[in-house]
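Predict structure. Chain length: 265.
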Amino acid sequence: MEFQQLIWVLGGTGFIFAMTTLGAAMVFFFRKKTKPIFQTLFLGFAAGVMIAASVFGLLVPAIDIAKESGDIEWLPSAIGFVCGVLFLFGLDRAIPHLHPNANLLEGPHSSMKRSTLLMFAITLHNIPEGMAVGLSFALAAQNPADTSLYFAAVALALGIGIQNFPEGAAVSLPLRQEGKSTRKAFVMGMLSGIVEPVFGLLMVLIAGFIAPFMPYLLAFAAGAMMYVVVEELIPESHIGKHTNAGTIAVMVGFLLMMILDVALG
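Prediction complete.
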C-alpha cells in the first residue's frame, strides 16, 4: 500500500476514534445524572446511522462489485452478511459484558467490575465500525481511478464518526453515574473506541491479499453492524417512557447517513 493511501486510512479511522474521545469528554460537562432521554436519543441515532451505513456504504458496493465480476449479484453479500452476524453473535456469547440500560450480565459469568463490563459492551459495537471504515478505504485504494470510492469512504467515516460522538458519551456518562471518577470515566470511554483504528488498519493490511473476497468482507462488516443494531441499540433506545423519541432518533440517524453517502459518494 502506498504512503498516501495509508494516510487516508489513518485519517479515517483516526477521525472516528477522535469522535469517540470527544463524546467521552462530555463527562466533564455533565456533572449530575443525565436524563434517560439523552441515552435514548444517543442510542437511537447511532442505530439509524449504522443501518444506513450498512446498506449504502457496504452492501450496495458489495453487490456492485459482484455484478462487475460476473458473479451472482446477491450471493457474496448474503454469505458475507450471515458470517458477520455469526461473528458478532459469537463475540456476544464469548465476552462478558453489560449494557448501560440493562442489569443482566450477557456472555459467560464473570467477576469483573460492572464498569468494566459496561465498557466491554460498547467496545464490541466498535469492532464492526472500524472494519467497515477500513474496508471502504481499502476498496478505494484498490481502485484508484474511481475517485467516487474515496468520497464514499469519507462519507462512511464521517457518518460513523458523527454517531461515535453520542456513543462515546453513552459509555463515559453511565460509568460516572456508576461511581467512577470523572477522569477514569473519560479514559474508559475513550479506550472503548481504540478497537476502531486497530480493526480498520487490520482490514486494510489484509485486503490486498484477499482482494477477490472484498464483496464478502464488505457484507461481513454490514452483517456485524446490523447485529449490533438489532440486538442492542434499538431495544435499548426503546426502554422506558421515551420510545417515540428513540424511534425518531433512529430515523434522523438513517436520514443523515443516507444523505452523506449520496452527496459524497
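Summary: The radius of gyration is 18 Å.
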